[in-house]
User: What shape does this take?
Amino acid sequence: MATSTSPPEFAEATRDETSLRRFLQGLPGVDQVGVEQRAAGLATRSIKKASKLWAIDTAISMVDLTTLEGADTHGKVRSLCAKARRPDPERPDVPQVAAVCVYPDLVTVAVEALSGTSIEVASVATAFPSGRAAKEIKLADVKEAVNAGASEVDMVIDRGAFLSGRYGQVFEEIQAVKAACGDAHLKVILETGELVTYDNVRRASWLALLAGGDFIKTSTGKVSPAATLPVTHVMLQAVHDWHKATGQLRGVKPAGGIRVTKDAIRYLVAVHEVAGPAWLTNKLFRFGASSLLNDLLMQRRTQLEGHYSGPDYVTVD
Assistant: This one.
């Protein structure tokens, strides 16, 4: 089972299904009360006004601006890409977002609209959001997105297989998707709202890291609860521990339900305190969001102008 995507120190853990299960079930349990208290405590921290503008700009630069609806059109994707390039048309100093995320059949539209920028084009794949499809279909989904020009792929794990204890199946599928990605970065969506326990979130995080995921992502945004601070704490701790063990930096992406600036700042505080300041970059932390960007832009104007501008000053997604 082990391949070059697993560091040498974890070769034994990924040797076969039994070894993988032993490793994942042997991870320390998550102290539910402790992680929730720490998340709540960090969420109460305030930051100075001088730091707030930096935090807002940092959060903007970490947004994966997303549209994943059945009614998506070429025009909607082009409009989203225009907003990604110039989030506030009246203020050219506002950072561009990190990426635009769309379905595979709309990747070519986004690639064309973002040509000449450093904004990544991300595509969901592997029968998003359910993950209920044959492996061959999932891999074809990935190849379609990558061939169309996607530089990032957001896959969903088979939660049924994971919850049934078929860790090897999930591991091998992530590896196969990683191989199909080629040079594209892979974000592995755990759908933490369906994993039920923090222990499962920790095991799924490590499973995705062992299999070669470049990012671990909380949610599809289609299941409630989506991203939460305690769950994100568990995932940030996983990438911190992974780095400590291997020297490799892997990212985290909370997605779904993060809509206002104060919540985004709470996540940035968690990133700094749990994973470390090295993760305060869009290379290692992202927000999967659509409406969040509007609030960040309004709060940015408030910081600079001293009064609340209101929603009429930003484009509506």
